[in-house]
Structure formats: structure tokens, C-alpha cells
Amino acid sequence: GQSLEQPSEVTAVEGAIVQINCTYQTSGFYGLSWYQQHDGGAPTFLSYNALDGLEETGRFSSFLSRSDSYGYLLLQELQMKDSASYFCAVSLSGYSTLTFGKGTMLLVSP
Amino acid sequence: DGGITQSPKYLFRKEGQNVTLSCEQNLNHDAMYWYRQDPGQGLRLIYYSQIVNDFQKGDIAEGYSVSREKKESFPLTVTSAQKNPTAFYLCASRARKENTEAFFGQGTRLTVV
Asked: Of A39, A79, B18, B19, which sits with the fewest C-beta atoms within 10 Å of its C-beta?
């Protein structure tokens, strides 16, 4: 089976940097994705890593270490609108389903 | 505009009744998915379909059924056999090629009373 571990909640202040970690145990691995979900809304795609290293997209970056079965999402220059739940998800092949972690609720305060 | 539409947004049903949730996409995606979300549980896969007229069970398929008669549509039926149907249901679609993101609908919140 597959399991993904991420913290349940993280708090930070506006303008700060926060890192959300994700460790996974899967039978096979193809890539790690990150999704953002505001309360009651649809999850939206943030980033994807298939190879080791850092991927940067504006204020958000995502890192993957395949040897450590570990990745993280880095959010810089935090804004109030970044308060949301963040999910890591693994895909076992290029065409397979996504298996999601339980999500990390990020609370950004003024 | 291309997208994925779920309806209705809120649904109330009496215990013991079957109910069907609609999911339509005009993104020309081959793959479609149904997830269930409960507080603190993340997204759990119910059923998925990679191609028309074919679908597979996910991790929590018991008490649910689906059909995929058209590429654009992937309805989910919550049957009376589902012991705990009250939840937030999310439909997603994805192009059937490598490294593609999933697009989600706005969800249907089902409450069984």
C-alpha cells in the first residue's frame, strides 16, 4: 500500500517563509505533486517533481529527494490568501492515479 | 471556457436512498476520478476511469458505483450500501499522458439524514 505523512497544521505570519514536509512509502514511485485547497473549494495544482531537486514557480518551490522518499513545499513571502490546506500526492506511474496525503492546514496571521 | 463541472453543489438525501452525483468535463481528458474527502482524512480514491467504458475500483469503492459511457461524463452513484455517505465528493480529470496535473470540480457536499 501507499502512505504519505505530512504535518496536520502549520502557522506563520505574513511575509515569512514556511516549509511543508511530506514523506512517503509507496510500492513504486513516479512523481510527487502538490495541491492547494481553500476551505470548501476545489484543489488546485501547484507543482510537480519527478526528479531530485528544486522546482521554482514564483513564490512557491517544491523539492524532491527520491533516495530519502521525501519532499517539501516552500512558500515564500507569505500572504493572508495563502491560508489553505496543502496536499502532497504521489503518482506511481506517468498515467496512474494520484494518492493524496491527509493535508496540512496553513494558517497565516497578520 | 474549459473545465470540470460537478452538480449539485449541495445534496440532501434520506437514509436508504441511492443518489447520483454528476461530473462533466470539456477538457478532452481521458482519465477521470472520484475522491471522497472527510475532515482530517485527505482525499481518498473511490473509482477511476482511464478510458470510456472502462473503470476500476479505488481504495474505498464499497457502496459506490460508476459508469463511463461518454468521455465527458463520469457519474457517481452513492448506494444505500454505503454505511457513512455524508461527505464532500470531488471529481477530477487528467490528460492520459505523463506528468499532467489533475483538474478538480468544485465538489458536491452530500448530507444523508
From this structure: A39
Instruction: Give dist(CA B59, CA A12) in Å, integer.
Output: 34
**Assigned C-alpha cell, B23:** 461530473
B71-99 pLDDT tens trace: 999 999 999 999 999 999 999 999 877 66
- Give the nearest partner residue to A98 out of B50, B102, B106, using CB atoms: B102
Lookup: cell for B48: 477511476
Q: In the predicted model, is pLDDT for residue B1 greater than 70? A: no
- Asked if residues B90 and B34 have their Cβ atoms less than 8 Å apart, the reply is yes
Q: Measured between CB atoms, which of A33, A35, A102 is closest to B41? A: A102
**Min distance A15 CA to chain B CA atoms (Å):** 27
Q: Is the CB of residue A18 less than 8 Å from the CB of residue A107? A: no
Backbone angles phi, psi at A86, to 5 degrees: -120, 130
SS3 A81: helix
- Quick one: DSSP state of residue B97? S
In this prediction, residue B41 carries a pLDDT of 80
The closest alpha carbon to B23, from B102, B97, B113, belongs to B102
CA B75 – CA B43 distance, rounded (Å): 18
